[in-house]
Amino acid sequence: MTPPATASIIIAMSEFTVVERAALRQAQSDGWLTLTAEMRDVLVTHWQRQCASAGRPFTVLRLDRRRASLWLIPSADTVWTERELRFFRNVLANESGVVLTPFGIRAFVTSGHESTVMNRLLGATSGTIHRANNPRVVSLVGRIGKPTRACG
Fold first, then answer.
1. Residue 105: inside a domain, yes or no?
2. Dist. CA 87–CA 121, nearest whole Å
3. Is residue 91 part of a domain?
4. From first to last of its 152 residues, what are the pLDDT tens digits of the chain?
5. Contact 111, 102 (CB under 8 A)
6. With contact defined as beta carbons under 8 Å apart, do 61 and 68 qualify?
7. Are strands 58-63 and 33-35 parallel, antiparallel or unpaired?
8. What string of H, E and C letters represents the secondary structure of 61-130?
9. Across the strands, what pairs with 61?
């Protein structure tokens, strides 16, 4: 028996809860998906696919009582430049748990500052992301490009 191909399952909008549909509408307006405890993983997968098909960064903010977790991942086969990383580091200077790499950003943002931080971060990403030279870049929908073989 073959296991189901979960990566290829596409969920219809009617199958999302009212809260999830509202979150997706807001995400399309804001540029990032804001997650709360009542939202399911399938919502994140759907948003990830929307970002990938639009060629835009995958951006998620997960709210908690004291802080929010922020993820900002460049679109498939792209990386953040050194200039962008310096800008992101400055924007996130007062936040905790900051991890900056050319392949993604994660941080904990103080509650109440989420929208300001996300707007500043996303303002820096419009049109400035550069293509990655590394064929092993992970795409937003979970596929990994075939690695190149070493000569010799």
1. yes
2. 8
3. yes
4. 444 444 445 677 888 999 999 999 999 999 999 999 899 999 999 999 999 988 889 999 999 888 999 999 998 888 999 999 999 999 999 999 999 999 999 999 988 889 999 999 988 665 443 334 433 333 333 333 333 333 33
5. no
6. yes
7. parallel
8. EEECCCEEEEEEECCCCEECCHHHHHHHHHHCCCCEEEEEECCEEEEEEECCCHHHHHHHHHHCCCCCCE
9. 34, 70
> What residues contact residue 8 under an 8 Å CB cut-off, 6+ apart?
none
Task: At 70, list the tokens.
Answer: 């922020």
Domain CATH code at residue 110: 3.30.70.260
Using alpha carbons, list the distances in angstroms from residue 151 to 40, 132, 148.
45, 21, 9
Task: Report the domain count for the chain.
Answer: 1
